[in-house]
From TrEMBL, chains A, B, C, D:
Name this protein carries in UniProt: tRNA(His) guanylyltransferase
Residues that coordinate or bind Mg(2+) 2: D29, D76
Binding site for Mg(2+) 1: D29, G30, D76
Record-stated family: Belongs to the tRNA(His) guanylyltransferase family.
Residues binding GTP: D29, G30, R31, G32, F33, H34, S75, D76
Keywords of this entry: GTP-binding, Magnesium, Metal-binding, Nucleotide-binding, Nucleotidyltransferase, Transferase, tRNA processing
Domain tRNAHis guanylyltransferase catalytic: 6-136
Source species: Letharia lupina
GO terms under biological process: tRNA modification
Origin superkingdom: Eukaryota
Amino acid sequence: MANSKYEYVKTFEQSTTLLPDTYMTVRIDGRGFHKLSAKYKFEKPNDRHALELMNAAATAMMKELPDIDCAYGESDEFSFIFDRSSRLFERRESKILTTVVSTFTSYYIHLWSDFFADKPLSPPMPTFDGRVVLYPSSSTLRDYMSWRQVDCHINNLYNTTFWALVQNGGMDATQAEERLKGTMASEKNEILFCEFKMNYNNEADMFKKGSIIYRDCDTSSSDSQEAHAPAVFNSEQSEMSKTAKKKERRRRAQASITIEHTDIIRNEFWDQRPWLLSGPSQ
Amino acid sequence: MANSKYEYVKTFEQSTTLLPDTYMTVRIDGRGFHKLSAKYKFEKPNDRHALELMNAAATAMMKELPDIDCAYGESDEFSFIFDRSSRLFERRESKILTTVVSTFTSYYIHLWSDFFADKPLSPPMPTFDGRVVLYPSSSTLRDYMSWRQVDCHINNLYNTTFWALVQNGGMDATQAEERLKGTMASEKNEILFCEFKMNYNNEADMFKKGSIIYRDCDTSSSDSQEAHAPAVFNSEQSEMSKTAKKKERRRRAQASITIEHTDIIRNEFWDQRPWLLSGPSQ
Amino acid sequence: MANSKYEYVKTFEQSTTLLPDTYMTVRIDGRGFHKLSAKYKFEKPNDRHALELMNAAATAMMKELPDIDCAYGESDEFSFIFDRSSRLFERRESKILTTVVSTFTSYYIHLWSDFFADKPLSPPMPTFDGRVVLYPSSSTLRDYMSWRQVDCHINNLYNTTFWALVQNGGMDATQAEERLKGTMASEKNEILFCEFKMNYNNEADMFKKGSIIYRDCDTSSSDSQEAHAPAVFNSEQSEMSKTAKKKERRRRAQASITIEHTDIIRNEFWDQRPWLLSGPSQ
Amino acid sequence: MANSKYEYVKTFEQSTTLLPDTYMTVRIDGRGFHKLSAKYKFEKPNDRHALELMNAAATAMMKELPDIDCAYGESDEFSFIFDRSSRLFERRESKILTTVVSTFTSYYIHLWSDFFADKPLSPPMPTFDGRVVLYPSSSTLRDYMSWRQVDCHINNLYNTTFWALVQNGGMDATQAEERLKGTMASEKNEILFCEFKMNYNNEADMFKKGSIIYRDCDTSSSDSQEAHAPAVFNSEQSEMSKTAKKKERRRRAQASITIEHTDIIRNEFWDQRPWLLSGPSQ
């Protein structure tokens, strides 16, 4: 066939397979969202609609990709955690990464008008970049999740205080920055309380703790309990009957998806949802 | 700072840098566009609006990423070719790949209603996956481009004949497939001509040849001629003055972007636009 | 300096860092050892001297690289398992891989004459290739080790029977192969027992089970017990005092190195040597 | 078969294929050769036997791996350049890298006694690490070679002056270092000439320029001229008849291997040996 003369160029394609039996994590980040938030006049320090749009796009993704167990979002970023035993796209990195980024972007643009009916999009459009990171154990994955939630806390406390100084304290950005330079968390809390009568603890949990979205696979029926027992990762897995695979896939796709704004650093959250970190091996 | 306890998880991030002095090529592909084209009743064998939407999204991308020299699209795929000397995002693979995929997706969704005003989008949304391929020389890059255009030709001749048999020849899909199995190009041309009075040569060039989009940097002024001389790839490059870099960047951003539906396999197209494959070294 | 003009070529170097908190495994394989074993008239089916030379080279490597916890060898291959928390060469793949391959080769050549005093080496020389594989959990690593020992068993049973047929049964290679095609383990055992009065169980353990070499870190003193508690893998690790690191390094370097020819598939071996698979996280 | 239960661990193996149509370059480096040169009392600033041993090992490698076109060595390092069209081991990185490192090490140890008959090796043994770097064009490859030769020159001029100050000038190492800190090449030349009556130009070329080793494929017969025309890199290549491939392989294996100590920065060397950088594409 005429094509064959050029087909050798396919040999230049290189493909990375992600190490099996690890938690594949895709983190997407808004590109240039500082500018974007100015263009569309996002509320400061937090725009509830902008965060809810992020959550809506993340929820839509979890509906389309049942291999994602949970996701954590704050500000303009979201991390998606795949089930440790996922074989999605034979774990090809480019395919997984671009599917997640494209799906998120697609819903973000599509759903925009649901959250900002009065602010139509115009070029340059919102876009997201992304990266894959692998965590080989539940403890390192937990530490990753904790890292993002601590980041959320630190940034939000800073931003809340910064904007209080600017919006209610009559400072300009430079003065507020100067004031906050080197301050501890306790000092920021004190500024908020003493100068602005704000108790940081009363701020919305979505702002303080970000959003954890997870597939709620738990049910009381013993049948389904059995169904979500983690697959043993070995030869038997590949011989898991097609029926069983289909059944598992359906179970995941049908599980309800839950959003919470809660502490994911302590054990409690994870202890109560043991299926989230279950995996084939230790 | 409290964050430090978890920050070690950053050491699990791995980053691939794309080999310098090669043509970075990103090819994006529609995911499940067979189903999508049925859902939105795309015209067969080619839907002009769907192709124009692809071209519009590709053009918007080239405006946002001036390091892309040209792009080639057919059906639900597009290939973007970066200038050989591009240092975009320090050539980090994930960053380049996800930025291209996200930008394309974003404009595809945003511009959809310009081309399909009467067919509003609904979940599941259109999405694209993508991959990066490196070509180390202009001849291998040319062969890549030829490969895609030959692919366009083969698919389009097949589809044109297939749909003629179905739409005008009273066959169902299975019969048409059966009829075409093993036929040569000449036989398909003959079926079209003898049975349906169609001269394949008269089909639209966009269908037969796909779309090549390029940055039209050529001007007659000797000043700009000099400006787009390829940078020498060596130490001097990194010492290129900031002014020169800014000027080059502006020149690229301002160059008009042209779409053609023409042969890119023969030398003529490239010989007439020597700046497209120019690069620092041989 | 005059060098700077060319120094940009360093930017073409690409480096892969091996995922932290996984078991780095380097397996080396003799290149063309079939030919080599003919050239130097190795005894069939097993040449005790050749195996002991492999073990001697592996032992020398473990003395030079204290981050290796254990190694498993059979035939012309050896697998070296690094401690899960090893930071050797910042886990750069090329550096780890080539150091292991070069060190093994170097000792293999150097020690050759100790085992084959009457068979001096001549070109082409013995060489080894190698690869790195990562295992993210102790269970997958255990399965890797089991895989190699099962391989040893299968090959050795086959070879033992094959050479019995050839050396004592008057067959040529083709006939022996034909005879063994499709036979089960039990049938090979039977051939050995009925036709050649050989009880496979009585063969040397080194032939049947291969060689496991490990660092014998166990001591009864409570002090050292504490010393080899697995390091917690987080920020505190990097702050581990230099003294503690030096101490740990010395402890490893001084631990005696033990060779056994025993079952490593069942739990017993590992349960009795818990320090071998200890690691920072699960 | 019993093996199957564990065989899934093979899926954890990851393999990197080196980009086709680029110059694969493997640079090996002596590990800890500073200590080694002290242990075996290498002559300073250059030990002719040590360099000749490096060259002998490199020459042996080129005999075993006919895909290597040329190599450049200085001090305790050597760079091996594969033919641009080489398909050795399907261009698998680990296989190529470890084969080169192991082969070099093997010959270095084996040939040691030919050059140091009176200095028998003892543990720890000499070893080498290595890395692969790809160069996509002959100009970048030339710059790589120039980079190494400039490095040779700079180091050798420094070392020659340093050791003159120490051996003949009565300085200790610290004093000599202090004296040379910040000096230009011309000043070092002057020190050598004025204080030690040494004309640096009269030093041995092997010390000043390092060693270039290449396959001398040139012959006057028109037949062979044709034979080493670069293969066109496309589909036809893969259809190259087995006979032609065998012939090419034999031609390479039989070509004599030449060592020179000459300038490889200027064009002259390469212009006179056009087959060395010939490759399929530009």
